[in-house]
Amino acid sequence: MHGAPAMPADFRQMPYADPNAPKGGRIVFGLLGTFDSLNPFIVKGLAVQQIRGYVVESLMARSNDEPFTLYGLLAQSIETDTERSYVTFRLNPLARFSDGKPVLASDVLFSWRLMRDKGRPNHRLYYAKVEKAEALDERTVRFDFGDANDRELPLIMGLMPVFPEHAIDVATFEETSLAAPVGSGPYKVTTVRPGVSVTLSRNPDYWGRDLPVNRGLWNFDEVRLDYYREANGAFEAFKRGLYDFRVETEPLRWHEGYDFTAARKGDVVRDVIKPGTPQPSEYLAFNTRRPVFSDIRVRQALTLLFDFQWINRNYFFGLYGRSAGFFAGSELSAYSRPAEPREKALLAPYAASVRPDILDGTYRLPVTDGSGRDRTTLRAALTLLSEAGYKLDGALLRRRSDKTPLTFEILVTTRDQERIALAYSRDLKRAGIDVTIRAVDAVQFDQRRLSFDFDMIPYRLDQSLSPGNEQAFYFGTSAADSHGTRNYMGAKNPAVDAMITAILEAREQSDFVPAVRALDRVLMSGFYAIPVYSAQQQWIARWNRIERPSVTALTGYLPETWWYKPAPKAQ
After folding, report:
1. What burial class does residue 337 get, using C-beta atoms within 10 Å of its C-beta: 0-12 exposed, 13-18 middle, 19+ buried?
2. Measured between alpha carbons, how far is 322 from 308 in angstroms, rounded to an integer?
3. What is d(CA 17, CA 237) in angstroms, rounded to the nearest whole number?
4. Radius of gyration of the chain (CA)
5. For labelling alongside 454, which of 71, 159, 441, 518 has CA 20 to 30 A away?
6. Is the Cβ–Cβ distance between 224 and 199 less than 8 Å?
7. For the segment 435-466, what is each residue's pLDDT rounded down to a tens digit?
8. Under a CB-based contact definition with an 8 Å cutoff, are residues 135 and 105 in contact?
9. What confidence tens digit (pLDDT) does each residue in 487-499 have?
10. What does each C-alpha distance from 398 to 122, 384, 429, 432, 434 come to in angstroms?
């Protein structure tokens, strides 16, 4: 996406794959939920997501060691211009579908039309930006983008799934189906137990096994995906060895739940992985459209009153971190980093939109004594609230001008969200702020969130190392009044819009990183949301019959690089 690929043209394998990994055995996934479809490319149904990658391939494969770089998979070569106004893919002549038929330019054009007309909304949006598509010969296809002016498009086309035209019924494509799809990938669907389990078996005739992007990957003869309806039942099944690994997301379980016999004996191994991607982060978003949050001093004061140290210790066993920014733990984060000259140049016309201590990297989130009664942060918050026109009247904080109390509602939908909101409300009460916590079901929560009908809501943000157009959907002025966008906080800031434009215009990594950090600084300076916590690590538990490479990818764990370790033979 920016600059040059990290791997040389003659690379042998990805750095996070072991080319000597043994082939064979089986891995069993334990997935929460159910499924009623083997088609993850449409809106309808609950689909098995692993169909993509394992069964259906794209023209190119993404490197998990770089922010956004693709290497040839079905495509043997790629051509584009400096403006990225077109892209041409030349298909590998070896490429075959699992039924033995070759992958041709006509299949690529068919797949593009299918995704544009019948795919998921994001697919329809992107693929509609193609102005002209044509087959130059049997194995070469060209896409022209006209005036789209979107430098991501050649990469987005490279990630397009490729389907066999001869095996797809266009009329029924948008309907859920449990029929085994024909793909060009390393596995075929061999067994389906509706809603319960899907078995993928290695295709012994897989055409791409020796490609550099695949060397050391897809090592299991069989991949079984078992579904569990309920989280505790799924964990008990793992303890009994019914599936091979789990990604733990519950701090209490990670802290206390792995004291069972197999774990004590070393049969279950626990890996703590620290990826280089932005950490998944939880926030409490202020709806700045509401008058109560229109004054930034109020938002700053309410940020001071959130006692992360107490919540982290009492609810999360100290396992979470926290960052003021929106790209936590990655090279894109501006938090605690002084601005470089390129950032300063971008921000110069918008000096009023960036706090000096955020620009020079000295700003830090408040750190309390963890008692739940920290007086220092309370005094600082009350000072800011006084500057904003509020005064304590007995036990209640009121606006001096009209005696209106400072009060708002926190909308929640899960028990965890409610627990955090209750702890926060206790801290707010000490400052004389009256807060209502309203718990609603998931449907009502979504409806109110999408129509911006709330004062404050919890929300999670998962950023990538290659932020782009979606940042305008999250933070842009044009999204602030458009229901259904993710600009929950109602940010309307020309500085934010300008930094997003700089991100989209960047061509080299040396321009891109400063533009993202500049955006991060403007967002931090706006106090649009209270950082609740960031998950700094990936917690993986696996039975020791499953091995993984010694090198971890930038993105973290990758089951497709793991292998089965046979039990030692009896002497």
Report:
1. middle
2. 8
3. 29
4. 26
5. 518
6. yes
7. 999 999 988 999 999 999 999 999 999 999 99
8. yes
9. 999 999 999 999 9
10. 46, 14, 13, 8, 10
